[in-house]
């Protein structure tokens, strides 16, 4: 019972951290502001997350769990292009999560950022997963002649780049429709 309560409290703290990071960015977010949102003192929050970096990693891991339906990162064989389109549609319904992820991603490119290693490892894995998705769909060559490994970083860049454009101008950028248009480009003429 105590463990379940502790996990529930950790979840509340992570959700509050997502909100605070979305509003202020990682560097502007403080443990005190997260603690205040959940009715704890900063010392009380440190009982659940001993450092700001530990809380950041929990936020990033939780975001990935949301994207994969509650599990860890999806296995490469579990995604298909149509499921990626569904993920883009799902992301369009949760701007706060997308904003938090995008803010952290942008900040993580700076030297010494605590999320840099997380994102570096994550993107290596995502590129492998996207290559597997493309291989399952097209075999060893896409209609354009690119290999799945050549196209995987492009697919990943389109997904994340559309998120930034959509966050900046949601009334002008229909993220799901734009991604479906990209899939049409991938599939080539007559698809």
From TrEMBL:
DNA-binding region: 30-49
Domain (HTH tetR-type) ranges: 7-67
Entry superkingdom: Bacteria
Key words, A-Z: DNA-binding, Repressor, Transcription, Transcription regulation
Pfam families (alphabetical): TetR_C_6, TetR_N
InterPro entries, alphabetized: BetI_C, Homeodomain-like_sf, HTH-type_TetR-like_transc_reg, HTH_TetR, Tet_transcr_reg_TetR-rel_C_sf
Protein name: TetR/AcrR family transcriptional regulator
Species: Streptomyces polychromogenes
């Amino acid at each position: 019972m105590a463990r379940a309560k502790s996990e529930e409290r950790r979840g509340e703290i992570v959700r509050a951290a997502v909100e605070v990071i979305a509003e202020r960015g990682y560097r502007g977010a403080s443990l005190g502001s997260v603690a205040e949102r959940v009715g704890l003192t900063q010392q009380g929050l440190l009982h659940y997350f001993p450092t700001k970096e530990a809380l950041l990693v929990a936020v990033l891991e939780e975001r990935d769990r949301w994207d994969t339906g509650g599990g860890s990162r999806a296995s490469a064989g579990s995604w298909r292009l149509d499921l990626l389109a569904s993920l883009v549609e799902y992301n369009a319904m949760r701007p706060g999560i997308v904003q938090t992820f995008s803010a952290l991603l942008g900040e993580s490119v700076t030297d010494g950022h605590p999320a840099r290693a997380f994102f570096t490892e994550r993107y290596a894995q995502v590129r492998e997963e996207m290559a597997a998705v493309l291989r399952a769909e097209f075999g060893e060559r896409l209609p354009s002649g690119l290999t799945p490994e050549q196209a995987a970083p492009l697919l990943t860049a389109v997904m994340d780049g559309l998120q930034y454009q959509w966050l900046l101008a949601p009334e002008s950028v229909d993220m799901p429709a734009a991604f479906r248009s990209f899939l049409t480009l991938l599939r080539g003429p007559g698809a």
